[in-house]
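Re: [ENG-882] Designed sequences occasionally contain unexpected residues at chain ends

Forwarding the minimal case from QA. Structure tokens:
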């Protein structure tokens, strides 16, 4: 896992937070919730990919 990965997750979080606040202020709470959920899904997919890579590394390390 690289430091750039953490920065990408932080950048997505900041962008989603700003979009969420803008949409809530304009009275679009449903779109704000969907934006938050979309950001969460993107980050979870990124984390799942990294966890899969971790498991592959562990499997190759122990010759499983």
């Amino acid at each position: 896992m690289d430091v750039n990965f953490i920065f990408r997750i932080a950048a997505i979080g900041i962008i989603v937070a700003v979009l969420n606040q803008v949409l809530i202020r304009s009275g679009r709470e449903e779109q704000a919730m969907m934006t938050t959920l979309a950001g969460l899904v993107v980050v979870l997919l990124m984390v799942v990919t990294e966890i899969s890579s971790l498991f592959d590394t562990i499997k190759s390390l122990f010759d499983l």
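QA comment: On inspection the terminal residues look reasonable. The CA atoms of residues 56 and 64 lie 10 Å apart. Proposing we downgrade this to a documentation issue.
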